[in-house]
Each structure stands twice: as structure tokens, then as C-alpha cells.
Amino acid sequence: MAQLEIKNVTRRIGDFVAVNDVSLNIEAGEFFTLLGPSGSGKTTLLRMIAGFDLPDAGQILLNGKDLADTSPEKRPLHTVFQSYALFPHMTVVENITFPLKMSRCPPEETRKRLQEALEQVRLTGKAEKYPHELSGGEKQRVALARGLINRPRLLLLDESLAALDAKLREEVQVELINLQRDVGITFIFVTHAQTEALALSHRIAVMNQGRVEQVDEPSKLYGFPRNRFVADFIGHINMIAAQVIESTHSHVRLAVPGLGEITAPSLPDASAGEQGTFSIRPEQVRIGMHDEPAELKNHFAGTVHSLLYQGDVSVYRVKLADGVMIEALLPNSTPGRAELFEVGDAVKVGWRHDAGMFLHG
């Protein structure tokens, strides 16, 4: 039995269905992420787990017990909000131990748990500081320590890294992974940031318009999206309208208007004549002026339409026949810009026969 079971949960706000018949199982000790755009229902679902909202239909069970009649303060979980919600007039110690004070924890036990919490989040030297004296990352760690000190079964994190700048965000992500592994508590994390979800999670539920589109490990979500929404929402991807010519156990042959034929990995339920989309990640597309791309099963000539230099990589948009655009990503492994292609250069692009995939619809 999963630690947390969400069974056919629906939540309506007036005429708007915020969460629509969602079912999920979350295992003990898992770092589970609810990922989706604004309005997808992820925060509403988190609020129902926390008890701040109640489902209009369905059940939420923790270790087999329905939480419907359990008030938020009596649920064995804690929520870390985006704002951190620290008390400005309290020190780090006072903020962290506040839940223990409310539960009338004995002084000796409080001191023991405080020391453990400070060490877990590496704040032993900041114990007597006030929130305004801390960096964003340190405030984040205080909020985490306060959430962990009561030893909850679940820790809920609502966009809790969103306020951090990019560099600090990366540092806190590493800390969060290590912390979750060390304490072994189930983390349920809400975010709209795809790269963050991919970096942190054991599994991800991608939500859209109140429904779950796909639940999977990060590598499977990225490499094998179930539909166009998941493919487009997770990372960058090329999408080209295509029609199935032939579907076999080893491959799918596709026709692309104005471009010709593409060979793609097999898809058991694809059928000849079906209209859909061929999708491929930019890093799977090779680009060159010479013969290397032409040696690949799928290869086409084109012209560099635009480029985006990002330091470690450059992203090229190449215009192929009949105006078809495809992005290719090239690592900048040599110093300087000497080896980069320029706008207007004639190039060849190509990809392996087992790269990319056909998506229905």
C-alpha cells in the first residue's frame, strides 16, 4: 500500500473544475513533484493534501486512513510556502522550535531536536540571527528545518524555491536532494519549473487543466512523453506534422509535407494513414557543413535561420525545405566563436533512425 493515496479527487471553485478526477499513489520516502503551468491544479491538490481545502469528490488517504475529518493542524505533515512565512521578530532558533512550543514539547527533547535540525540544514552558526539578517538560501533552510522538526510523515513544498535567483536556486536544489535523502521523509513538491522538477524528483506528475497527463520518472518523461502537451511542456523539443506511411515492429515510416520521409522508432499502436506529430529533442539533432549528418538515416539540407549563443551550447534554428524549422543544439567545446555557424550558412542536419518519436494527434 502506498503511503499517500489520492483516489478520484475532484475540486470545484464555482463553475471552474480546478482538479478533475485525479488519482495518484505516492510511496514512503519518495521525492514526488506536481508539475504544471499556472492554473493546472497542482497547488489546489497540494492544499487538499494539507487540509486547507477539501475535495468535492474522492478520497485522500495517508497510510490507509481517510484524511477528510482530520483538520490541517492535526495532519502529520508540514507545508513550506514560497514566502517561507518566517516570523520576523523571532530568531532562527525561535522560528525553528515554534511548532514544538505549540505542541508543548519538553525542553530537553526540544533542545535535542533543535540541534539535529540545525545540523541537517547547516545553520548552527546562525542560530541567534533574525530573518532580515539571512540570505534567501538561509531563510529557505530555516523554513525547511521548521518543517522537519516535528518529524512529519510528509513535507509539502509549494513553489518554495521560486523566490531564489538562478545560482542560489541550483545550490539549494542540491541541498534539498541531500536533505531529503538524509531524513528519509516523503517530499511532495509543487513547481512550474521543468528543469527543477527533472533535477529533484524520483517521480513527476505532469498536470494540465486539472488532470494528470503523465506520471513517470524524470528520464522517461523527458525521453518518452505520452502526448503533445507533455512533450512540449518538458524541455525544448521540435515538433513536425507527419503522417504514418508504414508501421512495423522495428520502425515507423513517416511522411512530412514538403520535406519527405522520416524513419522513427516503432510505436505499437500507430497505423498507416494516421496523422500526428514527429518530435525530437534539439540535442539529438546533428548539424554540420560536411558529410557527418548525411551519413545518418534521416538527413536534410537547410539554412541557418537564427542562433542563440548560451555559453556552453549554441542553439541553431535551421530552415529546411518548404519552410520547416528544426532546432539543433551544438556544444561549444572549442574556445571563442570561430567554429560557430552564422545566420545564412548552408548546413546539413540529421538524426539517428532510433531518435525522436511519433505522437498521436
Largest sheet: 6 strands, mixed
Supply the CATH architecture of the largest domain: 3-Layer(aba) Sandwich
Q: Numbering strands along the chain, what is their spatial order in the largest sheet? A: 6-7-8-3-9-10
Q: What is the total domain count?
A: 2
- Helix proportion of residues, in percent? 10-25%
Terminal CA distance reads 36 Å
Question: What is the CATH topology assignment of the largest domain?
Answer: Rossmann fold
CATH classification, class level of the largest domain: Alpha Beta
Radius of gyration: 25 Å
Structural class comes to: alpha+beta
CATH superfamily of the largest domain: P-loop containing nucleotide triphosphate hydrolases
Shape: globular
Question: Mean pLDDT across all residues, rounded?
Answer: 90
User: What share of residues are in beta strands?
Assistant: 35-45%
- The count of strands amounts to 20
Order of helices and strands: EEEHEEEHHHEHEHEEHHEEEEEEEEEE
Any low-confidence stretches, pLDDT <50, length ≥5? Answer: none
Number of DSSP helical runs: 8
Descriptive account of the structure:
Strand 9 (203-208) and strand 10 form a beta hairpin. The protein has helices spanning 42-50, 92-102, 107-120, 136-148, 166-183, 194-200, 218-223, 228-233; strands spanning 4-13, 16-26, 31-35, 57-62, 65-66, 77-80, 154-158, 186-191, 203-208, 211-216, 238-247, 251-256, 260-265, 275-280, 286-288, 298-309, 313-319, 325-331, 346-351, 357-360. It folds into two domains: 4-232, P-loop containing nucleotide triphosphate hydrolases (Rossmann fold); 236-360, RNA polymerase II/Efflux pump adaptor protein, barrel-sandwich hybrid domain (OB fold (Dihydrolipoamide Acetyltransferase, E2P), Beta Barrel), CATH 2.40.50.100. The chain is built from eight helices and 20 strands. With 361 residues, it is α+β, with helices and mostly antiparallel strands. It is globular and about 75 Å long. Helices cover 23% and strands 35% of the residues. It has a six-stranded mixed sheet, sandwiched between helices.
